[in-house]
Each structure stands twice: as C-alpha cells, then as structure tokens.
Amino acid sequence: MNQINRRSLVKGASAAAVLAGASVALNVFAQGRKPIRVGMIFPITGPLALLGETQMAGAQIAIDIINQEGGVNGRKIEVVKADAPNSQAAIAEANRLIGNENVKIVLGTYASGLASSIVGIAERSNVIHWEVGGVADSLTQRGFKNVFRTPPPASLQGMMALEFINEVVAPKSGLNKSTLRLGVVHEDSEFGSTVAKTLAERSKVEGIKFTAYSYAKDSNDLTPIILRLRQDAVDVIVSVQYVNDAILFWKQAKQLNLALKGHVALGAGHFERSFIDAVGKDANGLFIVPPPVEINPSGLDATAQKDLAAFNKAFEAQYKKSPSSVTMLGFAGTMILLRDVLPKASDPENPDAIRAAALAVDKPIGSTAAGWGVKFRPPGENGGQNERAFWIVQQWQGDNLHTVYPIKLAVRQPNQMPLPAWGSRS
Amino acid sequence: MHADSPTISTSADSLASPSARFRTTLQFLVPTVLAALLIGSTTQQYHLDLLFQVLLGALLASAWNIVGGYAGQIALGHAGFYAIGAYTSTILLLRFGISPWIGMLAGAALAALCASILGILTLRLRGPFFAMSTVAFAEIVRLTATHWESVTGGTRGLWISWKPDAWLMGFSDRRAYALVALGLLVLVTAVSFAIARSKLGYLLRAIGSDEDAARSVGVRSSAAKVLAFSISGAFTAMAGTLSAQYALSIDPPTFSSFEISIQAALLSAVGGMGTIAGPIVGAVTMVTTSNLLRSTLGGQFGALHLLIYGIALVLVMLFMRGGIVGLWTRVAKRRHVLKP
Amino acid sequence: MDVFQQLFISGILLGGVYALLSIGLTLIFGVIRVVNFAHGHFVMLGMYASYWLWRAGIDPYIGAPIVFGAFFVIGAGIHHKMISRTLTMPHLVQVFVTLGLAIALEAMVHLAWGGDFRFVQLEYTSRIVEIGQARVVVGSLVAFGFALLATAVIYAFLHGTDVGKAIRATAQDPYAAQAMGIDIGRIFDLTFGLGVGSAALAGSLLVPMFPAFPSVGLGYSLIAFVVVVLGGLGSVPGALMGGLLVALIETFTAFHISPSFKEGMYFLLFILVLVLRPAGLFGLRGSELVGIHR
Prior knowledge:
The complex is a heterotrimer.
Chain A: H1 3-33, E1 36-42, H2 49-68, E2 77-83, H3 87-100, E3 105-108, H4 112-124, E4 128-131, E5 147-149, H5 154-172, E6 181-187, H6 190-206, E7 209-215, H7 223-231, E8 236-240, H8 243-255, E9 262-265, H9 273-279, E10 287-288, H10 302-319, H11 325-341, H12 351-360, E11 393-397, E12 400-405
Parallel strand pairs in A: 1-2, 1-3, 3-4, 4-5, 6-7, 6-8, 8-9, 9-10
Antiparallel strand pairs in A: 10-11, 11-12
Helix pairs in contact in A: 2-10, 2-11, 3-4, 5-6, 8-9
Chain B: H1 18-41, H2 45-70, H3 79-96, H4 100-121, H5 127-147, H6 149-152, E1 158-159, H7 175-197, H8 199-209, H9 211-216, H10 221-247, E2 249-250, H11 252-255, H12 258-271, H13 277-296, H14 304-319, H15 323-338
Helix pairs in contact in B: 1-7, 2-7, 2-10, 2-12, 2-13, 3-4, 3-5, 3-10, 4-10, 7-8, 7-10, 8-10, 12-13, 12-15, 13-14, 13-15
Chain C: H1 2-32, H2 39-55, H3 60-86, H4 91-113, E1 128-131, E2 134-137, H5 138-160, H6 162-172, H7 174-179, H8 184-206, H9 216-231, H10 236-256, H11 261-276, H12 287-290
Antiparallel strand pairs in C: 1-2
Helix pairs in contact in C: 1-5, 1-8, 1-9, 1-10, 2-3, 2-4, 2-8, 2-9, 3-8, 5-6, 5-8, 6-8, 9-10, 9-11, 10-11
C-alpha cells in the first residue's frame, strides 16, 4: 500500500472507531437516561384514605427530591400509581402493576391488611415489595425473601410504650411494677389484637397486673369499656384506636369522669390534628408512640439533616402544615430505597440485584431523616425487617405534639404525670 | 312470579330424543370449551385475575340462584356459607395437613348442614322475614370467625403458605385456578339444569310462584326449600374454599362481608334469576364493569361501582325483572313472532 | 350499685332513640306492608343533613323539624315514583328495590362527601348532668325527650286525626278502606313519607352525640329491624317497648359480657324472636305467615 492509502485507512479506521465508540456510549447513555419505574400502591380512596394519601405524599416528596438531584445514578424515578381502597382492589392493582406495567418494585401500602394480601403476589412474581408503612409483625414472618420493611414492627411499639411507662410514667405517678394496674383499650382489628397480645405476654414476664378491653370497630358507644376501666381501677392505659373511636372514647371518658394516671396511645387516631380539634384541651398530657417525626436534628448525620429539612420545607410549601409521622414513614422509607439501596444495585430493575443491595446496606442510627439506621435482616426469621428502626414517644403539650423520648432525640421534657383532671390540662 | 321460563326446554320428555340430548350437551360443551380456551390463551396476570373474579362471581351467583332464583327465597346471608367454606378448608389444611380438595367437600357438607338447620328454623318465615334471618345468620358466622381466636385466628385471620403442589391446590400458573373455577361453574350449572328439569325443580318453581297455593295442593314445601337451600349453601362454600386458596389469606371482614351476600343475589338478579345463563351473564357484565371502573377511574371514584350496582338493581327490578337474559328472550320471541 | 344505675339510665336514654329510629319502619310495614331495607340509610342522610345545616350555622335541634319536613317530602316522592310500582310484585322485588336504593344512597354520600367521620360539636350537648349516681350527656337527654315527644305526636296523629284514622283503616284492611272512599295511594305515599321523615329526624337527634359516616346506615337498619321484630311489626307502642328493651340488653351485655359481643346479642335475639314469636310482643299475630302478599 502507498502512503496516502495507509493514512486514509488509518483515518477511516479511527473515524469508524470514534463513531462506534460514540454510538455505544450514546446507547449506554440512552439506556442510562431511561427512567426507573416504581409502582406505588396506597389507599387513596376508601376508609383508610385520609392517612394513606398523606403517606403517599411523603413518598412522592422523596422521589421529587431525588429526581431534582438527577435521579438514581442519572436515571430519574418514574412512578406508576395504584389505588387500593381494600384488599380485593389491592390484589387486582398489584397484579396490574406487576403484570401489565411490568414494574419490579412495588412500594406501599400504609396498611398491614393491604400489604398482607399482596406480598404473596410479589413473592410469586419475583418482584420486590417495599413496605414503608404497614407495621404488623406478620408481614416479615411469612418466609418471603422479596419483602422489605423500613419502619419498625408493631411489637416494638408496644414494647416502647411499656418501657416508657416503666421508666417514666409510673415512677412520676408514684407507682412501680408491682403496684401498677395496666390496661390496653383496643379496636378488635389485627393491629389492636396483636398489641394486646404482646403486652399481655410482657406484662406477665415483668409481673405487672394487666387487662385487655376490646371493642368492635365502628362502635358508637364505648361507655361500657369506660365503666369497666373505672371498676377495675386501672392506672395507666395503652390504647390502639383509629381517629373516630379515639375521639369518641376520650369524649365519653370525660363524660364519665374517668380518672387515669396516664394514657399512652399507639394508634394513628391520636397522632393527627383531627384528634385535638375534636376534643380540645383535654388532649394534652396524652403520650403517643409514633414513628419518628419532629426529632432533634442534632441526633442526625449531615445527609439526614439535609433530607429532613428538605422534606419539611417541601411538605409545608405544598400542604401548608407540618408533616405527620404517617407522612414521615412514606418519606423515610422511600429515601432509604432511593439513597441507600438502588444506587448500589448492579441493575436497579433486577429484583435479585436490588435484594442483594438491600441486604448489604449497613448504616448506623442517625443516618436517615427519621433518625433510624438501616440494616435489613437476612432471609430467615423476620427476614427483610429493618433492625435499626425504632419508635419514639411524643406528648401533646400546649395543643401540639413534641418529642419527649428517647432522650437523645427529645426536644422537650415529658410533663403532666400523673394526668391532671379533666378540664385542667395544658 | 316467574313469567320467564329457563332458557332451556323444560318439557319432561323432550330430553328423551337423541337430538335434544345432543343439543343440550352441545349447549354445555361449547361455552365450556370456549371458556377454557380463553383461560388458556390469557397470559397477562391482570387479565387472568379479572377472569378469575368473573368466574368466581358466576359461581356464587349460580349457587344463589338455586335457592333465590328457582325457589324464590330471598337469601341475603350467603356470605356465611362462603366463610364456612373458606375457614373449614383452611383450618383443616393448617391444622391437619388435609388437602383443600377434601377440605372443600368438608366445607360444603358443613355449609349444607348449617343451611338445613337455618332452613328448618325459618321454615314459616316469608319474604323479608326470611331475608332478615339469613342476614342475621351471616353476621353470626362473621362474629364467630372474629372471636373464636384459637381456631379461626380472630381478626388477623389465617394465611396459607404457598407451595406449587396440585394436591394442596397450589398452582404456580394462575390459569389453573381459573380452570378450577370453570370446572366448579360447570358443575353447579349442570346441577341447576338437573334440578330445573326434575320434579324438585317443578316443586321449587311452584313454591316460588305462590307458596300457599302450592301447599294447598299438597306440595311439601318445607323439604323442597330446605333441600334447595342446602345445595345452594354447599356450592357457595366451595367457592369460598377456592377463593381462600387463591388469595392465600383469609380474614372475617373480607370473607364474610355483607357485600358478598349482596353480590351473590345481585349478579343473579341482574343477569336473570331462575335461568341457567342469567347468573353467568350477570357476573360477566357487573364484575367486569366494576373492575374496569376501579382501574380507570380508581382515584376519586372508588364508590362509583357500588352506585352502579345499586342503580342497576333498582332499575332491573322495576323494569326488567327477568334480567338481561329475560330481556334477550323477550326480544328474541318478538322477532320470532314477527318472522313470517 | 352506681354502675347499675349508670348502665340503666344510659340504656333507657339510648332506648328512646332506638324507638324513634324504629317507629318509621314499623309504620311503613304496618300500613304498606313493605320492609324498607334502606331505612338506616335515611337515618344516615338525616345525620348528614343536620351536619351540613350545623356547618351553615343552624343548630341541629332547630334544624330537626326542617330535616323532618324535607325527608317527609322526599319519602313520599320515593314511594310514589318507585315503591308504589312494586306493591303488586313479589317480595323479592320489594326487598331488592329498597336494597338497591340503600346501596346507591351510601355510594352517593361516599362519592359526595368522602368516608370520613363527621362530628357535630355542640358545647351545650356535651355538658354532663347527674341523675342519681349516673352521669349523662345533655345530648342524650334531649334526644330521649324529643323521641318520646315524637312518639306521642305520631300516636296522637294516628288516633286523633282523620288522616291518621284513614291510615289505620288502610293498615287493617286496604280493600275495605278503598271501598270506603279512601285514596290508599295517597295514604301510602303519606305513610312512607312519615316513616322516612322520622328516620331522618332520629338522625338529627343522634348526630350531636355520634359521628356521621356513609356506612353507618346498615348498623342502624339492623337495630331498627331487631326493635321492630321484637316489638311487633306495625305497632307503635311495640317500637317504643322494643327500643327500650334492645337498648337495655345491649348496654348490660356490653358491660357484663363484652362490648364485642353486643352485636352477637342482637342477632341471637333476632333469630330467637323470629323463631319463637315472630309476631313480636305487640305485633299482629300471623303477619309473618301471611307475608306481604295482597
């Protein structure tokens, strides 16, 4: 070959190489730009809608924040929404998300009952079920390897309540384990019954006198329960109630002048403003055991602090009020998926890769906006449960909720123990 | 009461001729084969789920039809039998490892027993009084399931761990569940057909038309009613078992809700009570509509499908008592008459 | 002892409301011989109506007559347009039509106003009054008083006015009544309106104490059925006695056995009465045998 030909050959070859390389890069680039589709299933209509919607809002804020930062490894998150007002709808919608929409992650569901109906579907179809709100222990006890749960389980909530009562409420009210009479007042749903059972077992172990008082959902009269509480001279109650019975119970307790030394509420009914709007100043003094919200930021690391601030700002801008713990669950759980799991997965749309990445996460307490750490239990006993999630204790003080326990995350001291008489609480 | 006769010939000797028998067999075989093909060709999980719900609805409605359509007894408590079926097979499976196929039969037997007892207790009650007692029955079943925690798991309910094992009624291919539903549907339809053409069916229709007149000519209405009720309850329980195996978890609110009782009656009424095809037609139209509504409108209009159910029920009852099948028959007859 | 007093007084007061709840149902049955499966849903609508009036600034007790009047008209209209057609049709049709109406009403309310509970907060009704050793909420005393008053008024109406007598005549024998020149179509419309109106009125009295939500209707229907079956279909005094009895049984069962069991109690009672004495305490013997055929 003569000189000119070789040069043109080289030029041609290098041009080809550049073009090939460019097209490969472009392909990878295009692939890389393709959004990651995540299915979101919450009760947006129906009896659970009030709280289902607010939790979904929290999840959406997390997604918006991540997308603003450029997405996960450059790929934006695209949400496919589904409404599940009840179990039957949840099943149909889960099938639609997995079968029609082809998502590989189903995020949801706020309610353990809904989650319970669809975890089997995810498992059978090899799709990841990312639970951010349903806390019933049973969800991680069915031996499924595709189920991950970011918040703490319900059993720990009861334990936290008991711990708080033993450490703080009882001593301040002049009681100890042998003199304390403890009662649990609950709606006979799965959550309520599970809490009652856990508390019954623990009370027996610790030697505390304990009775459970249950009633049917949608009862329109709780005075029989209140009369029995009075007759049994119960000192402190733990309650598991939804909004309506929470309000009804407290109003009727006032009517019958039930004198309690303390009330620790585990049900979402006492977590919302609708409770204090309905019962007024008498809500003050009550303790609640919510998932973390309004915690002292000094207990968090830098990224977590930033996320917390961004979350509060976004929620308040859109909804004109501060976020509740239910919303925080949606935010925190989704953030863990988007910050700590998906970026580390070799392929964020391959369930096996996602699972491996999730099981590999190991972050200490204080590293998420909720104050939790992240470490999912391996398949086996309670597989998929985030071991480093916990509950906190708040108290209604001055018509607002403030975190009072654990001490490191507290913003105020607990007060009003024993509980003052009706009409004199603040 | 039933001006509409079933869509199949009821004259007692018409089945004797081989051509009539062939025609009837074809009437059964063709839709069954078509349905099986439909199931076989459906691959999308979402569509399969819908198909299953439709078949289950048809099964429920057809079972109800035996006592509600033919005998004209307003039973509004079939959720009780459904729950009995679901709980019996599940408890037998979880506690004793008994196959759900056998459990299904056990559930059906228990439901039939309860139906007989309830039927005997409420023999003299007519119309709305009978309806009210069936509602009370379903509520008692629900309350039992909710409070007998040691056996039924209380409000938590029970769940079944899934293994792909046909003997345990667990299938990896969802199409199998739909085929089982189809099989049960064919069975209950065949039984309905047999009843309709038999002396029992004749007695039931007489009772349904005017029980007092029937009794005055010596019809043993009690025995007939109780028998129909038991058969109806038994098949409803079988539907409950299948549903439990499909969902893999059962609990009182889902499996003994009033909505199930209403659905059983409503699907049959809208499609055409007292006919073979009616319950099936009713299920296909109503279940598909409500599912479609939910996935397209979902968000704001969760209660819309209930509104449609209610309005459909009122309109059908007022203007189209034979249901969709009745309307079809009337139109067909008219066209037949007009033909030269 | 004070527990017994508390339970007894609460039971009686609740019983008054249950009675008012059920009078409409028993009237409609006694005269028109139709069992209205949507009865509780009209109570629910009455609750919502009072709630919205309260939001507009009208006290529920002052608004109660308005609610009664409005639903009287609505009820009469529903009978005229819908129910009257079904009177010559089999039971099944009547049951399904009223059932369909109930389902549709509940769905409409859910679509319009969502599933959340609506509480009417009245300062003076939450005040507590002591009767002996029992503490009662003013609201329940008012409801009880109103209920007794309404029962008395209805009874007086049925026995003292010409229209009332016409209604009773129609109940006894519609053909004879018609032969005497009574327009029974109009009587039926009126009675249905009266029944629906009193159901809505009961709702107005309940809403200062209990929340309104779409699915509350079914529960009230069931209570009304138990009361009416116990007291005897068609009997106004029966509804009163039945209401008191059911409420007392409910209150004592809830305390002494378990609150969850109180529903079970209804149903057991229900089936027992239906099986042993279907005519109820004061009812027309044999009505359940005759059914509702004309």
